[in-house]
Structures
1.
Amino acid sequence: MVTHYEAQDLEALGDLVNYQAWILGWMRPFLHGRVIEVGAGTGTIAAHYVDTVASSTLVEPAQNLAQRLTERFGDRANVAVHAGPLDTLPEPAEPYDAAVLVNVLEHIDDDLGALRRLHAMLRPGGALLVFVPANAWLYGSLDALVGHVRRYGREELRTVVDRAGFAIDTLRWVDAGGVAPWYFVGRVLRRRKFDPAVGRLYDRAVVPLLRVVEGAVAPPIGKNLLCIARRGA
């Protein structure tokens, strides 16, 4: 059982308001009904949708973060926090309409097993919404710092989602502008700490432009991959 997670990356993401909105822009059309989020962290992503869906199950294996989720969302009758890994979650009384994994799948050793479990929990036609770090050659000191098991190639992600039984609707690169900075900081400088000021600058100055450009033209590469898939009948 994971008891503690040093949440440098989660705290950094929490301040990247434009980046959060960019990710949610792709996912929001599928966030309705009963939603399960795996690796909900401090609730940065959940905060954008829990008040607009019928119910949310927030799964968080790190005990310190699960406690923060409970403190943040404990007053909402439609939110349940599960403190433990996905494989300890009881079978739901009703299937879920959507499963969310934002910067989570790369932490899971048995990613195929996790996706197969989510497949069994979703209703036919239910959506799998995955956002992961991309490109193994970008793996550097910051990836190691936050415990990334891997960064995904496009075909690697396609294969694991296919093998789990899902039909892919969307698989695309995201954040082409972040490739060079991530490589420089993690592979060249080998930094061991996130810089909130640099993150905020990138979020305010670069992300809004990238969102417009990549919304019009899919980039040929990106720091991340977005996958939207469906469970078949």
2.
Amino acid sequence: MKRIEGEVPFGDTLAWWLEELWLQKGVPASQRSHRFDRPYLAWESVRLVRNPFFENGTGFEGYWVGQANSAEEVLDALLRVGRDALDSQTRLYRYQQSFRRRLINALHGEKVDFDVLAEWAITLGAILGRLRCNIHRNPQADTFRRETYRQVEGLPLIEYHEVGDDLQQVYEIRDSEHPERPRLYVDPNHLRTTDQEAWQVAAALGKFGHPLVREVLMAKPK
């Protein structure tokens, strides 16, 4: 088992929203949110230990198993994902520069508001929806996904602890054997400037699918 400890993404902001949900609904949202643990643990398993292409992955990589011939090919695909997300937001919010700045700031882990959190979560959901459609034509990716979910069966629930005004998390994922071929380490500093931003998007999007983020988005505090 690999034990992961650290801050919950946007933990200080989420802690405040979760407190509001507690007051409104009478049940701590951090307890109810375990319904989303399994997909998040599967995502983290791919990102951290089951990644078939990279030493420092994003969580998306399983969708290219059986389709891509090299890590470099997957990197190009991930950069397209990031660029498409940025281009889409530029078109949607062409005249809302302050909102676009807030979106970029959120990728750096800075304080977020509900609208920014929702926008990136919607973007993540749309990307995953398109990639999952391709699984029906890619049995190897489907097998990889099923095996990933099988490995998270029976894992402990994510634990949350309040530390001051912030939230910390502890969870476990199963170690996996490394693939036979060496995995690529992606150094953003070695990418072109435009590709660095695209990689940042692809690498950061997964945190907008965190169980507590999903819980808050589904029950917006008034």
3.
Amino acid sequence: MDDLALLELAADLAARAGAAILAVRARGFAVERKDDRSPVTEADRAAEALIVAGLRAAAPEIPVIAEEEVAGGRITAPSAQYWLVDPLDGTREFAAGREGFVVNIGLVRNGRALLGVVGVPSTGEIFGAIAGHGAWKQDAAGRRAITTRPQPADGLVVLASRSHGDVPRLEAFLAGRSVARVEKYGSALKICRLAEGAADLYPRFGRTMEWDTCAPQAVLEAAGGSVRTMDGTRLGYGKPGWENPDFVCAGRD
């Protein structure tokens, strides 16, 4: 399969996983805790099973690294190319009855987030991109190209984590910048809002995993933005334990 076909495969699986997540929400669910105390639900597991089965059936040559499989002890070594799957990013948002949860399916090639799809089950939005081919958003109005925006004259719209915010570090980071307002979101939806030009900056302090960032990073970079570590290096992939350092997402690189 070429990259365009892989992107469409991921978009289809993200839509189907979103439907499975909404079906679980409609009938009710229990919230459990993993070993790291993060929440997990039937919706996480159902969505992941659907996605990984679809990826492995359609492209068996590409390894799949999926959050719940890793939590269950399935360890796959990094390779030149692999999928990263977060079947329900924003489980806290989902469990709280809010709308800010997403499905992330990203493809890494040679340490870079090459391709990504982010589905938003509660709104029906799907974001997709391949490096060098631009980014798009699909919703009830159809599919259209998206791009980041220049910094507004009245100041930056900054996005922050609803559940994992570090207010002192955020305030220190923003000191001296022209900021119009700070808005709080859950999940990788924040990065997609930068990609479509609805916000400008998202600094992230604290633990994240590669499956949290690969798909939305591909979307943001293809739309004209950047995801960089605090030393200015592009966020890369294949790190020990799949764990990311702190990073900053910007609407314009």
4.
Amino acid sequence: MIFILQMLTISCEKEVVLDLSDRQGLYFVVEANIDDVSANQWIRLSRSSSYYEVSTGKPVSDAIVTITRGGENHVFTESHVDSLAGYYINSTLANRLRYGTYQLTVEHEDRIYTAESEYKPVPDIDSVTIDLNFFFSSGLTNDTLYDINIHFRNLQGGGSYYLVDLYINRKLQTGRPSQKTVISDQDLEDYVSYSVKTISQNDLDDGDMLGLALRSISREMYEFYQVFFFQTDLSGNPFAGAPPANIPTNLSEGAIGFFQVSSVTSAMKEFKSIGD
């Protein structure tokens, strides 16, 4: 999010006052991650919340939400279930995705917000492997740690970007931006073996099914996660490191968030403890 920090400082001994609450409701927020594996696609619309507000922003209702490619329109219908306020649903788009550029249009209160995303292929996952982490095997920690590795053949031509999510027993473990793994193929070999997550044995039981989902993303979304991670989860301190920059977005008219259409491949591996 975009936060403006207004600091009132009289001397180094004085209290720093942060006026951050006036951002509430200012920004139109769009969450639109479309893929080719989910039966029901959803887009969430909301208003930005205060910096100090722990809940999500106020849902936006009565919008017209459409995704278009080549004259074919896919309308997203507002959910009227209280627990899904602000969600707009489509159950047919996933089966009709074709490689190319898609346009998102959101109309609300006489304003039109737009974005584009290119739907690109993604490699098949060859395998998922589990290794003992270096810090544990070297005796640098007493916590038994495992590296979860993904293996795939990189696409030809360069310019590919990927996002990897981890599931344990089909439950998503990487919901926060800092927990996700984003990969640029700039420095990758033709065949990729990449450690995407380190997990403690305390969080696993023999027989658990580990799943990795590899999805295609744009360069802009790759940069979105990089900036989001360094400004929020990595630092946790608005005064640490370099001055904050605006989080990237591909939405028009001052809206924030992101629109992404992705191909997804996945693979699973049964967990068995190693070296006991």
